[in-house]
# Entry
Amino acid sequence: MINSIRAVRRAKGLTLEEVGQRCDPPTTAQTIGRLETGTRTLSLGWMNRIAKALGVEAAELVQLPQDTQLTITAHLGADGAQAPTRVEQALTARPGEDMVAVRVTSSIGDYRAGDEIWCRRTESDWTRALNRDILVPRPAGRFFFARLLNVDGEKLHLLPLGTGQRQQVVSNPPWAAVAVRLIRTL
# Structure
């Protein structure tokens, strides 16, 4: 059985040792590593223990062949939206083909650190996204995440999420992605 223990553990920022200590009863980092890689059989009992330690449902640790993984496209923090330094997967991915994800790394606007924002890509008709938060690609692998205030031809008028920031105008972006789902761990 293919599992996604490693992806969930990494997305939550936990080490093998931390997951092992959170298990009830505690276990070793080596055991967790063997279960992640499939060198040790992942029984239903182990799956339930690890899911509880990670704070997720056991079903989220099973990866079916037809499951789609949603890749994190940008990290959002006080300094804006940045491209990730390594490939990351969203926690529970059952997205459509036109979806991208943003992980919030520090609280900004209505978003908290640890949130994931799922966005639906669109290449035209941005008026349907008015007064919604959108992700817009910028040159050199950068991104801009802000509230869409107005569409003037091919110009998007955007208001950054931070307090006291001024409206920005982005001309003729190749695509934009409208925020449609917020994934927040409580």
